[in-house]
Amino acid sequence: MLDNLLAVIREEHLAEQLYHSLVGLEVEEQRIDQQGRLSRRSHPSKFGSRTFHPYFQTDFTESQLEVITDPNPNIGGTLDQLDTLQTVAYRTLEGDDRIWPLSMPPVMDETDLQFVADHFERPAVKPYREYLVKKYGLQHGCMTGVHVNYSLPDPVIHRLFSHYTDEFETIVAFKNALYFRIAQNFVRYQWLLTYLFGASPIAEAGFFETPPAELAEPVRSIRNSRFGFVNRPEEQVTYASLDQHLQQLQAKIDEGTYFSAHEFYGPVRLKGQANAQDFLTGGIQYLELRDFDNTPWTPNGVSRHALYFLKMFMIYLMTQPLPAGKALELLATGRQRNQLVALEDPRSATQFQASGQRVFQEMRAMADQLQAHNEQWGAIDDLEEVLMHPELTPAAKLVTHIKDGSLMAFGQRVARQWYHDRITAARLLPQSPRLGTETQRLIMTALQLGIRFYQVRDEDGEDMFMFTFDGITQVLQERDTMGKAPEELLRRLFPDLPALPVEGPQKNNL
Questions:
Q1: What pTM, to 2 d.p., does this model score?
Q2: How far is residue 275's CA from residue 347's CA, in Å, rounded to a whole number?
Q3: Which of 124, 185, 384, 454 is exposed most, by the fewest CB atoms within 10 A?
Q4: Where would I find the Glutamate--cysteine ligase domain in this sequence (predicted)?
């Protein structure tokens, strides 16, 4: 199935389009107070309602912020939007709140946990949240990470399908096979990503009631280990085949093992349909990759090199065959390796270094055939060096900052520095240096309120600003923003925009 896919990609000259596969990000992060504890403030009051906000959401805790970008074919565009959204988030923080830079939460005592348990301001999802607390505990939901949403360009799928019409009756079946091969191989090689990007070596006091013996010393990634953000071992869903995956997922929902599909915490989720069985008729629209820890080495929480590498890695996964007779064995080996790598000493070479070298050799051969760009070659070169030098991994670098078994001092220092750098920047939105201050303020207000924003240029090269809410799009030029109160202007453009929600009193001193 899907034989000679790399040759077909070359024959159809599709490499350039594959480099421009869509990538969107969901960056989860915790707000902390001046003492480095989880913030007890409500969700920032200047943000529009979480019932519809496209850019700023929360999840398990009120202190968590989820920053969401639009899908973008260019890594630069994705990161520019993320940087703008992060800037808006920082400029919207209230009081002494800062952003915690690590996936594992800060120190938590009983009063912190009780506050998390007692305060939740989203009634619609409260039953699900109460279920999660009872099943997994409070600490489980306090971890954060980066989710990458990945989709192939539709023209690429159609061009490839024309070579496989003997195997697949419909383009939906072909697209499902393509995406599911990527998903299977992602599971198979997840261990390599955990090695390269794992950044959760220790847990702070209060996370475990009794710390596991396996975590007595620092590891690569608690979050990606069996002690992290995963389902119970007996509640895993297979990736052996698409049919089995969907059947098991639906069965666990029907029998009450999962509250809903949201409770499936596998390394990759199929996305784009409301129900599991709808994928067979409607097709997989994109994949959600869930392996990535927050990195404290860039203030956006995700590195540029990681995303450039990931684009090449996804093409590699798509073109790697998975023999049907060996699928179960290879997937089981991949999961076992991921557990072993996640719990390795981050200062030492991984026991699977030779296997990693083979992956890089094959990626280099593929990149050569596809005439990869300098950015892709640079990412491959740099991350192969990380493979050979474990001291360069995020987890190993974090270990050098551990003091008395804790990263609290490091995390607070980074949080203060990131806040200072954002707030004292010369421009309101550094990624829009050509725009005037009034235009930047209008854009920031729109993003706070939950109005979608896109910047384009007309045929004369003049900037056009597109604001969209509830299916209505308004287009402005810079002169239209001059001398106008931002929120007043936006509410005049979008009269149905809801008033800012009342999230409840500030709770810093409770």
A1: 0.95
A2: 43
A3: 124
A4: 7-324
